[in-house]
Design brief:
By secondary structure, the protein is an alpha+beta fold. The protein has four helices and five strands, in the order ααβαββαββ. It has a three-stranded mixed sheet with strand order 2-4-5. A hairpin with a 2-residue loop joins β4 and β5. α1 runs antiparallel to α2. It is globular and about 65 Å long. The N terminus is likely disordered.
C-alpha cells in the first residue's frame, strides 16, 4: 500500500525514504513545540515543573518553531517560480548589509567574521540571494569554533559572479557531497533539531 506516496522516489528508494523521514521529523518538531507551549504553563501553575525549566523549554521550542516556519516559507518561494522577480541587485551592498546583520552574532560567538567585496550588479531576485547567503552564514556560524574565521566574499570574474562563505568548520564528508543539493537531505550528524536545519539550504 503506497497511500499516495511515490513508488519510485527521485534518487532511488533510500533517498526518497530519507526525504520522507525528514518531512516526518519536521512535523514531529512542530507538534513538540506546540505541545510544550500549551502544556508547560499549566504544569508551572500546578507546581509539577519549575518555572525556570519551563521557560527554557518554551524559549527553545519557540525558536525551533520560528525556524521551521521560516523554512516552510523558503520552500514555498522555491516552489513558486512565478513569484520570483528579477531586478538589478547591488550584490556588494546586499552582502555588506548581511555583514552588518551577522557581525553582532559573530562577536557574541567569538568568531572572526570578515567581508571582502567589490562593486557587482546582477539580474536576480534579492530575496532568494539573501535566503541562500543567510543559510550559508547560519551554518558557518553554527559549525565554526570560537576564535576561528568566517569570510563572506563577493567578487566578479569575466564570465560569472562569485558569492562565497568560507569557514574552518568540519565541512561535509566526501560520501555526502553528491547529495548536498537533494531537498531535505541532512547528514546523520545534522539530524537533530538543535544543531541542524531542515536540509533546504542548497535546494
Amino acid at each position: 500500500v503506497t497511500d499516495g506516496l511515490p513508488t519510485d522516489p527521485p534518487g532511488g528508494f533510500e533517498n526518497g525514504l530519507a526525504s520522507l523521514l525528514e518531512i516526518a521529523a519536521g512535523r514531529s518538531a512542530l507538534r513538540l513545540a506546540v505541545a510544550i507551549g500549551r502544556e508547560y504553563p499549566h504544569r508551572v501553575i500546578d507546581g509539577t515543573i519549575p518555572a525556570d525549566v519551563a521557560r527554557s523549554a518554551i524559549d527553545s521550542q519557540t525558536s525551533r518553531l520560528s525556524d521551521l516556519l521560516d523554512e516552510l516559507a523558503q520552500l514555498r518561494s522555491i516552489d513558486a517560480p512565478d513569484a520570483v522577480r528579477h531586478e538589478d541587485v547591488d550584490l556588494d551592498a546586499l552582502c555588506r548589509s548581511l555583514y552588518r546583520e551577522f557581525n553582532p552574532l559573530a562577536h557574541e560567538a567569538g568568531l572572526d567574521f570578515r567581508y571582502r567585496g567589490e562593486p557587482v550588479t546582477l539580474q536576480s531576485d534579492p530575496r532568494l540571494v539573501v535566503t541562500v547567503l543567510t543559510n550559508f552564514l547560519t551554518n558557518a556560524f553554527r559549525y565554526t569554533s570560537a576564535g576561528q574565521r568566517v569570510t563572506l566574499t563577493c567578487t566578479s570574474e569575466p564570465d560569472r559572479v562569485v558569492l562565497s562563505v568560507a569557514d574552518s568548520g568540519p565541512g561535509i564528508a566526501s560520501q555526502h557531497q553528491h547529495r548536498i543539493f537533494d531537498r531535505f537531505y541532512r547528514t546523520a550528524e545534522a539530524r537533530d533539531r538543535v544543531s541542524g536545519g531542515s536540509g533546504l539550504g542548497l535546494t
